[in-house]
Amino acid sequence: MARRPLARVLRDGSAQIARSRELARSAADSATDVLHPLITITRGLHRLAGAGRRRWTDTPADRRGGLLFLAASVVLVVALLPYGPLLAVITLMAAAAWYGRDRAPATPAGPDESQVQRLTSLYEALVPYFSVAEDPSPLYAHGGDWEKAFDAFEFDGDGRISRLLVRYPAYFTDGEPAARARIEHLLHAKSGRGREYRFDWDEEGNELTVAVLPPLPTDITAQPFVTAPGEIVLGFTDPTGVRRTLPVRHGDGHRDEPPVVWRTGYRSTEPHLLVVGAPGSGTSTLLRSIALQALRHGDVLIVEGTGTGEFACLAGRAGVLAVACGPAGALTAFQWAADETERRLVAANQARQAGHPPPEDVTRPLYVLADRPSALGRLAADGQGEGDRDPLSLLQVPLRHGRAAGVTVVVADQYDSYDGTITVPDSVLPCTRARVVLGPVADRLAGVLGAAPSTTPAPRMPPGRGHARLGDGPVLRLQVPATPDPYDDATSDAHRQAVLALLPPRAAAPGGEGAADVEGPPTQEVRTARADRVPIETAAAEG
What are the residue ranges of helices labelled H in 127-211? Predict the structure, then answer.
């Protein structure tokens, strides 16, 4: 059966509708131009009536009679004068036209002279990078029109560029990182230093968007964040980087901030975390923040490689299995973590084969936090530890099988001060797909995170400031919440009280005689599901 053609009205309907819309828009514009005086006078009459109403309301009740008599006298005199009503109407219309005029300041149609000079200078600087001699009609040429290259632009109060949309020719090699880096460096220098910029490359549309980023908030302190079990808030980032916000406490009020949430557990694609930073960049602060959040729904085992007591506030607390220091304590702690991982795997396998759910001591999350473990490896290499075994070699079992056993490993270390290389062994890097880099180490970000950030380095890096990348996701700016050591004399009282409020209660001593002393924690025992218990050395390494 042959198909019948559509009626002409249906085929040409869209064109007729578009033509009708154009005619209606033109008629509306013409009517607005013709009726503009009437609209102005009507607006003025409305404003005069409002002013009179406010004057009548503000007048005291005992004086309203005299005001009413004065108004009636004026109306009577105007009515008795020759041509009085006509003059009164003309005066009223003139006053209404004056009060009804548009008082909004006229916005400039385009950039001013200084802004044009800045845009022209930027355009001329891009000519050597966005032009070739073989182009018959180049978009960029010396003395060319910058309006064709810059589709949109914004300036801040200081007259510097805050947002810019740059068009570039299709033959520019925007897929090469080196070519992109040259353009980003030029735009950063010409738009004004001392600020952070984000560069968004649209390879399909041949457009580059340059935007100035506001500084990340540094006033967020440690607090109980609204998260699900297994979620750890690493810090906070830009609103455009994530699609989620969390309410955070700020002084006496609350506000919403976009967080960087790291998901751990059995179904996590990034079960382990690597934190790398320069000295004083806040790696220990991030580990303290992770420990306080993990203690809400799991157990924590801490290995401190420096022996400076950065985690003494957590020793003896409920849920903290141990705070181990020194090569001997670290070796024992990592050995226990490896044995515990194997035990959990065996127990879970046996429970599944028997058709039973895994026991509670297997499903409860276990977090192994290692701060500066490379220092322990160097001590072991120098023969100052027990044997020649590197404690980090024992982390292979939790790193490779911890996801199935509910064991999460967090390794925090620093860049070597001599050769500028990362001190974490290569055996740890493949297993830690969630990574954080803190401090002014912009030239090494791509080597650790696996990708270069789309932002420029910050001119000033406060403690806890850096970048984060979870798996194959984008590189995000990061600001770690302030979680200092509450026992440090330099810690402010507000930060100290915020951290102490999150600490769990003290755990009872093994003999039932009370809680362990936090200021000088004694030897803590690691709780296991087996009959024997493995002691962990929590005192600092001797010598």
Answer: 177-191
